[in-house]
Write a structure and sequence with these properties.
The complex is a heterodimer of chains A (189) and B (324). Chain A has helices at residues 48-58, 102-106, 115-118, 145-159; strands at 2-11, 21-25, 32-37, 59-63, 69-79, 82-88, 92-94, 99-100, 165-173, 183-185. With 189 residues, chain A is of the alpha+beta class. The termini of chain A are far apart. Chain B has 324 residues and is of the alpha/beta class. Chain B folds into two domains: 3-41 and 89-148 and 241-323, 3-Layer(bba) Sandwich (FAD/NAD(P)-binding domain); 150-238, Alpha-Beta Plaits. Chain B has helices at 11-22, 48-58, 89-102, 132-135, 206-217, 219-225, 269-290, 294-323; strands at residues 3-7, 26-30, 44-45, 65-74, 80-87, 106-107, 123-126, 140-147, 150-159, 167-172, 179-184, 189-196, 229-230, 235-240, 242-249, 256-258, 264-266. In chain B, strand 10 (167-172) and strand 11 (179-184) form a beta hairpin. The chains are: A alpha+beta (189), B alpha/beta (324).
């Protein structure tokens, strides 16, 4: 019998146009994690299983932290602000100075969540805590689940100069972390 | 006949018990020992689709909820009126409890721990609303994952004069409040819930909030609110923005199916919780109806909780971007 309590924080960030690396910044001078997409341009036009397989080969994380950090990694492909594919890794631990290839073991096929499954029944996106009447918003309104994530991802990608692409999210297990992800522009496909 | 033990007599436990009885399981309900929970004192606003799912399980004509006028106020935009279900959680639980008993579920003594090795049961359902029961159980390891972000609600109760009028106001960006519900029940009771990321030790005065809502709602609705008086002492509920409880076991025994707040809790809770329960019960019913093993129902519901957790965390991650 054991009870453990873990605290998670999550975030997103932008990969500027033409770049393939982004830094995951940790609060209070705790260090950084480098997130790299090798051959990001090759992901253009990919979707579904092909994209999953490509991500497996191309994502790298490198820890610049003093302590090991437990984290989870997500990738969403957006087309015109709508989620077309969503991949989520299992949790994994990234040791100080170590490099991780989260795709190797962390994008199992059965963890592929098309948007419709991710937000069953057009439920309110839980992150949209801003409006108490949201439980009553009819499906299709912009504040519905996918709409909100779409807005976020679109915003992320637009900062990188693109309307479509892949956005990465990182969840990290620590109270002091301010984690980030990055968006990789793709062509419509 | 297969036998199930349901631990917890809240909406999740009772809906599970009703589903099991309808699938011809012998069902025992062990009530929780907990007292009144703070979040039961807040306004619960649920969509019609969720109520339809609940009635699909429990049967039509369920007491404890009713449709009422809803006024949505979104900052300076013109208010919009629609209809919405308003739930009295205590009355709804009472109605569900009655249905479960009518269907043949048997009430037994509360449990201090989950009987994970009791072969008398073919299925154990933990709907106790927290990780406490699992945490007390030998042979179970409990991991509680929580978001760093905090969600906080304050609720004031009061009266709103006589008459059988009932209505709800849902407001955003009024008087600096991120979110606010104000509801009047048919018996004249009223309740106002303020939601904020972190209100500090004492939020804004309820009377000032009410003034702002009246101004934003317009003349006709201000008249409806004219006789409201609040008890100045609010109920406070402060919790992580999302909480996911994972349980692993070291020994065999009957499958352990966990549902409700003890499995996954995400903001906004007062309504979202019911929606998640309805979803979990649907998954459980589908598994029971298909004749698949209870273990597969467990796996399906745990996976749905994982998705909710991820969605909540992405939502939390998205807020700074949206704000920017």
């Amino acid at each position: 019998m054991a009870v453990t309590r873990r605290n998670f924080i999550a975030g997103t960030a932008v990969l500027v146009a033409g770049a393939t690396k982004a830094t995951v910044a940790f609060a209070k001078g705790g260090g950084t994690i480098e997130l790299e997409v090798v051959g990001a341009r090759r992901l253009a036009g990919m979707s579904g299983e092909k994209l999953r397989a490509a991500l497996v080969k191309s994502v790298r994380l490198q820890s610049r932290l003093e302590q090991p950090v437990k984290m989870q990694f997500l990738a969403a492909r957006l087309v015109d602000g709508e989620i077309a594919d969503l991949f989520a890794s299992d949790g994994f631990e990234l040791a100080s100075g170590a490099q991780a290839f989260p795709g190797d073991m962390l994008f199992p096929g059965d963890m592929l969540f098309p948007g419709d499954m991710f937000f069953p029944g057009d439920m309110l996106f839980p992150g949209d805590m801003l409006f108490p009447g949201d439980m009553l918003v009819p499906p299709g309104e912009p504040r519905a689940a996918r709409g909100l994530l779409g807005r976020v991802a679109k915003d992320t990608l637009l900062r990188g100069g693109a309307g479509n692409g892949i956005v990465f999210f990182v969840l990290a297990e620590t109270r002091a972390v301010s984690s980030r992800g990055l968006g990789v522009p793709t062509r419509r496909g | 006949m297969r036998t199930a033990l349901v631990m917890g007599d809240g909406p999740a436990g009772l809906l599970a018990a009703i589903s099991l009885r309808r699938a011809r399981w012998m069902t025992e309900i062990a009530p929780s020992r907990r007292g009144a929970r703070a979040h039961h004192g807040h306004v619960h606003q649920i969509d019609f689709a969720t109520m339809a799912k609940i009635e699909a399980v429990a049967g039509q004509g369920l007491a404890g909820w009713s449709a009422a006028d809803l006024l949505r106020i979104d900052g300076a935009a013109p208010p919009v009126m629609t209809q919405a279900p308003i739930v009295d959680p205590a009355a709804l639980v009472h109605a569900l409890s009655r249905r479960a008993i009518e269907l043949g579920a048997k009430l037994v003594e509360p449990r201090m721990a989950i009987p994970v090795e009791d072969k008398a049961f073919d299925l154990l359902v933990d709907a106790s609303g927290s990780a406490v029961l699992a945490g007390r159980t030998a042979g179970l390891d409990v991991a509680i994952d929580e978001s760093d972000a905090i969600d906080e609600c304050w609720t004031w109760r009061g009266t709103a004069g006589s008459g059988d009028d009932r209505w709800t106001i849902a407001a955003r960006d009024v008087a600096g409040a991120a979110g606010l519900w104000l509801t009047r029940a048919v018996d004249g009771r009223c309740m106002m819930t303020l939601r904020c990321a972190d209100c500090g030790e004492s939020p804004v005065s309820p009377f000032r909030l009410l003034d702002s809502v009246m101004l934003a709602a317009g003349h006709d609705w201000s008249r409806r609110m004219g006789k409201i008086g609040f008890d100045p002492n609010p109920v406070r509920h402060r919790a992580p923005f999302a909480r996911r409880v994972e349980v692993t076991r070291s020994a065999g025994g009957p499958p352990l199916l966990r549902i409700g707040d003890g499995l996954i809790q995400t903001a906004p809770r007062f309504g979202q919780g019911f929606a998640q329960i309805a979803e979990q019960i649907e998954l459980m019913r589908a598994a029971l109806a298909s004749g698949s093993s209870p273990a597969s129902a467990v796996a399906t519901i745990e996976a749905s909780a994982d998705r909710r957790w991820l969605a909540a965390m992405i939502g939390a991650a998205s807020e700074p971007l949206l704000a920017a």
